[in-house]
Amino acid sequence: MGGFGVPVAYGDLRRVLMHRPGPELDMVTEETAADFHFRRPVDRERFVADWDRMHAAFDAHGVETLLLTDVLAEDRDALNYIARRPNITYVRDLAAVFARGAVMMRPSLKGRWWDEWVVRRAFERLGVPIIGSIEAPGRLEGGGVTLIGDDVAVASICDRGNEEGTAALREIVLGRDVRSFLEVPLPGGHVHIDGLFMVLDERLCLLDREALSVYPCRLFEAGRSEPRWVLFEEFLSDRGMTRIPITRQERDEAHLNVVVTKRSERAVGFAEARRIGEEMGERGFHLDGFPGLELIQGNGGAHCMTCPVLVT
Predict the structure, then answer these.
(1) How many domains is the chain built from?
(2) Rounded to an integer, what distance in angstroms lies between the CA atom of residue 198 and that of residue 140?
């Protein structure tokens, strides 16, 4: 299987870039955990065992998983760098792939500065075009970017993304990859919109209503010089989207951190997300769960640890 292009967030996942964590996890200590946004130092064997179960679920769903160290196997500089960067496992934050190619992100967390160059080099080897980059003073991460349908890109202004970053992304994709661009400010303390909102299907999503009702959003549309002000949930309602509300505990434990692998049918996420799995099951989905009690200590799950390359 080959190719690239991500026109929607909820189609059949064909190819995905991932990184199997290794010795770099030992860089996370009591003193550095906050720098790398880990809750605490992890047990490397248990962390990797959780990751392996997640990876096995993607394999079982027929997804072609491209491992970063395999793609860059002949690149000594990249491999040496990865061995010192425990957050490389969270590859989604380093790039966002659209229909035409990839936009390279610019991480905000100091423990992630410059990590995006590794994924850029992998895309060059995979033949994925780079259609743009977030440059200083812009900051934006892939967890802060998503798609609603095939016509709306969403980017959040949050602890990890600023207005310069969202404006840079808008300039790259609006009128080319999407017809509309929704800029969503998040309350303080939230690092990405994927911790509050997850698209599951054309008219189905998971949603933290409390956090996403604080600020109005700006909706930019191709061909219009000025944005419109909209409320996030009203925007979803106008599109006919069913919202599955999540609780604060589910949010804190990353239960909405799921990845659709087969449109309207299958997804991968934490086994602990039982209620969300039941809600999805009532709507025709099977959530294939993997245990993540150690993995969650890095504050991420299946969504954070996958960078979709091809979705059909």
Answers:
(1) 1
(2) 18
Report the alpha-carbon angle 56-57-59, nearest 5.
Answer: 65
In this structure, is residue 6 part of a structural domain? Answer: no
pLDDT score at 2: 77
> Is 7 a domain residue?
no
pLDDT in tens, 16-38: 999 999 999 999 999 999 999 99
Residue 48 lies in a domain: yes
Residue 223: per-residue pLDDT: 95
pLDDT digits (tens, 9 = 90+) for 145-168: 999 999 999 999 999 999 999 999
Domain with 72 in it: what CATH number? 3.75.10.10
Using one digit for the tens of pLDDT, what is the confidence trace for 181-191?
999 999 999 99
Length of the chain: 312
Q: Could you write out the three-class secondary structure of the chain?
A: CCCCECCCCCCCEEEEEECCCCHHHHHCCCCCCCCCCCCCCCCHHHHHHHHHHHHHHHHHCCCEEEEHHHHCCCCHHHHHHHCCCHHHHCHHHHEEECCCCEEECECCCHHHCCCHHHHHHHHHHHCCCEEEECCCCCCECHHHEEEECCCEEEEEEECCECHHHHHHHHHHHECCCECEEEEEECCCCCCCHHHCEEEEECCEEEECCCHHHCCCEEEEECCCCCCEEECHHHHHHHCCCEEEECCHHHHHCCCCCCEEEECCCEEEEECCCHHHHHHHHCCCCEEEEECCCCHHHHCCCCCCCCEEEEEC
Residue 69, amino acid: T
pLDDT score recorded for residue 1: 62
In a domain, 87, yes or no: yes
Structural domain of 19? 13-311
Q: How many CB atoms lie within 10 A of CB 161?
A: 31
Torsion of the alpha carbons at 55, 60, 63 and 66, rounded to the nearest 10: 40
Residue 171 has phi, psi (to 5 degrees) of -60, -30
